[in-house]
Amino acid sequence: MAIEIERKFLVDYNKWQAADKPVGSKLKQGYIVDDENRTVRLRIAGTAAHLTFKTGTTGITRNEYEYEIPADDAAELFTQFVKTSLEKTRYCLTHDNKLWEVDVFEGDNEGLIVAEIELDSEDEPFMLPPWVGQEVSGDTRYYNSSLSVKPFKSW
Amino acid sequence: MAIEIERKFLVDYNKWQAADKPVGSKLKQGYIVDDENRTVRLRIAGTAAHLTFKTGTTGITRNEYEYEIPADDAAELFTQFVKTSLEKTRYCLTHDNKLWEVDVFEGDNEGLIVAEIELDSEDEPFMLPPWVGQEVSGDTRYYNSSLSVKPFKSW
């Protein structure tokens, strides 16, 4: 089990477009369980696939349990067990020695770009990259599980 | 992914008591998902724990995807993700060169003993052990997922 402490920010589209970026990776993820306080997620990224159990979906700290599974299984489980899903391209980059993950959403969530930073403690200080805008850490609408049910374009 | 073809029978209590038996192993299992056509099961057997995804819960053939996970994680996931659960002691033995699994249920399912044989095809012939009674393969009440919701003693 891992403790995940994350803060989440909206990303300015124009500044992000103009920024130097690494190559992104396509992610397809779906939810097998999506209750108020727990999710079971199936994520497929190329030939890698993971099952992730998360609890405590309030605040910025969660328990996370993650297991890699065979990609062939994942494709079948996705069809048979996933209730709601989304796709995005993820860019991983460092700013001020901290890792940021920037998700550019697709499909019904197109237009939404979200940046996340993983912290070692809830009060850890960090520098904001220039393309980062409003913080949305506490906003449940931006949970990926929520976006798979009520996508950005429907807001 | 594995194909699971199983037939299930009630076991005669007195004949089973009188039979030569191997040592049994305690199983604790709970359901994270329990829909009509799919289940996600978490099973803990001593220090081993598995997540099992099953589909096609009609007839005697199912698709099964199983992954071992760390026992420490399993104990935490059991508390946080399992909705309904049951406990039983499982005895594995061979009869006429086929493996039989006999489950002696506990708690609210006490009094119920069920034997299962795994087959290579739906029409494979096999010999019945002397302690085997009525076949219940098609009876959804005897699905372990059902027994975790509506236990035997409540029938």
From TrEMBL, chains A, B:
Highest taxon listed in the record's lineage: Bacteria
Domain called CYTH: residue spans: 2-149
Gene3D superfamilies: Hypothetical Protein Pfu-838710-001
Family annotation (Pfam families): CYTH
InterPro entries: CYTH-like_dom_sf, CYTH_domain, NeuTTM/CthTTM-like
PROSITE patterns named among the record's database cross-references: CYTH
PANTHER family per record: SLR0698 PROTEIN
Name of this chain's protein: CYTH domain-containing protein
Native species: Mucilaginibacter panaciglaebae
